[in-house]
What we know:
Blueprint (H helix, E strand, L loop, with lengths): L1 E5 L4 H12 L3 E6 L7 H4 L2 E4 L5 H8 L4 E4 L12 H16 L3 E5 L13 H11 L1 H15 L4 E7 L2 E2 L8 E3 L10 E2 H10 L9 E6 L1
Amino acid sequence: MNVLVIGGTRGLGRAVVTAAHEAGHTLTAMARHAADFSEATTGIRLVLGDAADATDIDRAVAAQHAVVWTVGVPPTRGAVDVGSRGTQFLLAAMARHGVRRIVCVTCAGTGDRPGPRGFLRDRVMRPLLRKSIRADRDRQETQLRGSAVDWTIVQPAALTAGPATGLYQTVTDDAPGPFKRISRADVAAFIVANLAAPDYVHATVVLAG
């Protein structure tokens, strides 16, 4: 498959690019900056662009078979809309180019689902530094669920830099947790395995160790 990974040069996005490339897919990684990414060594196409820019998104989506959204936002007290605005443009571009499959990564705890708990998260991170991010992800998930594409929403627990273990749980109901940390490599492996599989189409999946 031709696979576009939006936010594909760092963190989880980079792990998805690597795993999908190793699985034999043709990869395009889209990011605002090319830091730490070498096409010469990976053989992967790099597209520089803004995930919340309609023209950049349309250019990247052309000729793809599937899209993976892995754009992360650092903690901030400012307004955040990259997820919802980018998804609006992305869904329009997918419709224009006949692309149906998308896997979108948000995080455990988005919407009404339970997420990681603790004093710092409950009293500082969520109300002060992640409130706008969570609201943006809520809007993003609502857009996907109301769309005509074959979507899967992946909500990983806290991520680690550990290796792929293949030992993780997939939760599709409202299980209360708490959810254990999971490696980026395991999340990437799940995403790649389900790009062409129907098991989790139109489903929201919490991934945890």
